[in-house]
């Protein structure tokens, strides 16, 4: 049996190595490794990602998606998102009328508010506010646990801006899909669309890093069983968010290095545009 040849460092061809740059995937030896949030990067990618060759920024690697690694709490955005969800939950507990004003609904007469409500009636804000709304402790506890487990790692891997964009666009896609397929008078609320977007992104990222897929796929299966096996769950939000998360994250971590930012934001823009188009077409149909 022929023995596999170990590649040599691209900068020091005589030095064998099993490590590759996480950005360009060229083999690098210990003298060329620059520690990054995910594995190691080569000196050229570090300089290129920093935007200049100045010594002040030469050792500031970017994330696998090209995001800037900032100082401070690596889970800052995740913590803020959890805090916002908890705050809105508390306000809803103190004032149940807030839930009626903010939940996603197509068009219906609300006896508690004494008027017609819904996106069709011009209340488009419900597509976003419903993403931060929960009624039951078990509901918000499950969503926030997943947000912390999935979001913290994704924020560190993608960078704050890309991570926040992934979360919000996935959540909006989940709301749009629910608005399209759910009965017009059916209320919906929860961060599940955004959370499932993070779940899809985790699948893509684990695959990209060639890590063991079994734990994350088991998590996906369990959540899909809950989605379709549990009563009173807006499965449309879960599926819409999951699809958006898969598409956006694939563009973020697999795009070509030369036009990576363009591909990433084009994918985000595409999902945002499709979500808005879905909302417009559904509104026209129900009007």
UniProtKB/TrEMBL annotation:
UniProt keyword annotations, A-Z: Hydrolase, Membrane, Protease, Transmembrane, Transmembrane helix
One GO term of the biological process aspect: proteolysis
Residue stretches making up the Peptidase S54 rhomboid domain: 122-253
Molecular function via GO: peptidase activity
Protein name: Rhomboid family intramembrane serine protease
Species whose genome carries this gene: Streptomyces ficellus
EC number: 3.4.21.-
Compartment(s) where it occurs, according to its Swiss-Prot or TrEMBL record: Membrane
Record-annotated membrane-spanning stretches: 76-94, 137-156, 163-182, 188-206, 213-230, 236-253, 265-284
PANTHER family registered for this protein in UniProt: PRESENILIN-ASSOCIATED RHOMBOID-LIKE PROTEIN, MITOCHONDRIAL, RHOMBOID PROTEASE
Major place of residence: membrane
